[in-house]
Recover the amino acids of this structure.
């Protein structure tokens, strides 16, 4: 059976062909561990857990990697507010995230790198970019010069869109408005590390490029990994910047395929901390089992935006209960040939860019 996935860069469904036969290397951008996980984390985790399972069902050895960003402005802010150490905060939220993922029945990752444990490869990559004059120093940071990469913008198709630059800090010392920080020099009460180019800490984008380089990258291929995945909000600037760094540092493309899951809306409004509508997963798990939440979040295609409301969650629970009642009645009564056809039909549906709606309709039938 052939597996087809939607490539976010090509903007079309393509046949999946791994770099090495029957091996799939996947990197999913994980959480910044300064708070409890929310429904957006759950949506992404379930989407790419399904991908993991579908690849395994197609006889791939899956090397599933999800990182933890454990050094970041938000973590430092939490340290200053709580009087806790970086390790105390990040360990707490890594553990609660893992517990939430277990409740959702997410398969274990093969590798779970932390940013703070991969600083040397980040420094090496930045030093390499500085030596090529693709990176440069200002008074506050080492920046990546996006004008040195002729392919900058090819991932998100957004590099020339000024509105897209809203998340990029304004700094008159930068060569170009779209240049981004690779290394932030130390400030008062900052967490900082020694580096050849100055005391400081890594920027967000360099973390993922460096961890892929260290833990996953094929050295003799055009592409370092098979699939890079994450939420749709990461396509620009995060994934654009990752791809550019890697391309300029190693002369390789970071990923052969790119996959992104849709947003979660709470009663029609995009979920965001600033809107105060960010449903923590732990709160939903108090009233509903992880399987019910998983089943509900799978009811829409992973690329579609998902409108979360409790009324639909309750309906989804009833639908799941009905399936279990049926399973209890017919379990073990079907012949193996019928089961084989049913299995193949389900897998064929999921091999079509993880078409959960079609798979669930087969189960309903």
């Amino acid at each position: 059976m052939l597996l087809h996935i939607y490539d976010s860069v090509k903007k079309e469904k393509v046949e999946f062909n791994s770099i090495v036969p029957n091996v799939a290397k996947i990197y999913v951008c994980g959480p910044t561990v300064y708070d409890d996980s929310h429904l957006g984390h759950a949506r992404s985790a379930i989407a790419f857990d399904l991908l993991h399972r579908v690849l395994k069902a197609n006889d791939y050895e899956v090397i599933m990697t999800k990182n933890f960003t454990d050094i970041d402005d938000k973590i430092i802010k939490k340290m200053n507010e709580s009087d806790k150490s970086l390790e105390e905060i990040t360990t707490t939220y890594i553990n609660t995230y893992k517990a939430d993922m277990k409740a959702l029945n997410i398969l274990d990752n093969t590798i779970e790198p932390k940013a703070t444990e991969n600083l040397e490869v980040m420094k090496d990559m930045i030093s390499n970019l500085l030596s090529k004059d693709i990176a440069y120093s200002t008074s506050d940071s080492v920046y990546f010069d996006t004008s040195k990469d002729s392919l900058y913008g090819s991932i998100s198709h957004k590099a020339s869109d000024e509105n897209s630059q809203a998340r990029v800090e304004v700094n008159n010392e930068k060569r170009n408005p779209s240049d981004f920080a690779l290394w932030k020099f130390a400030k008062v009460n900052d967490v900082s590390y020694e580096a050849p180019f100055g005391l400081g800490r890594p920027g967000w984008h360099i973390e993922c490029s460096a961890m892929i380089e260290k833990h996953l990258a094929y050295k003799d291929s055009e592409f370092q990994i098979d699939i890079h995945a994450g939420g749709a909000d990461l396509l620009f600037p995060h994934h654009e910047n990752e791809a550019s760094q890697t391309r300029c540092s190693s002369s390789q493309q970071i990923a052969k395929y790119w996959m992104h899951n849709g947003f979660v809306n709470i009663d029609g409004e995009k979920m965001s901390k600033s809107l105060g509508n960010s449903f923590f997963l732990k709160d939903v798990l108090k009233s509903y089992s992880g399987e019910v939440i998983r089943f509900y979040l799978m009811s829409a295609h992973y690329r579609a935006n998902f409108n979360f409301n409790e009324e639909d969650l309750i309906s989804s629970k009833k639908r799941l209960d009905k399936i279990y009642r049926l399973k209890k009645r017919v379990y073990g009564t079907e012949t193996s040939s019928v089961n084989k056809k049913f299995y193949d039909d389900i897998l064929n549906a999921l091999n079509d860019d993880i078409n959960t709606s079609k798979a669930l309709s087969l189960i309903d039938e």
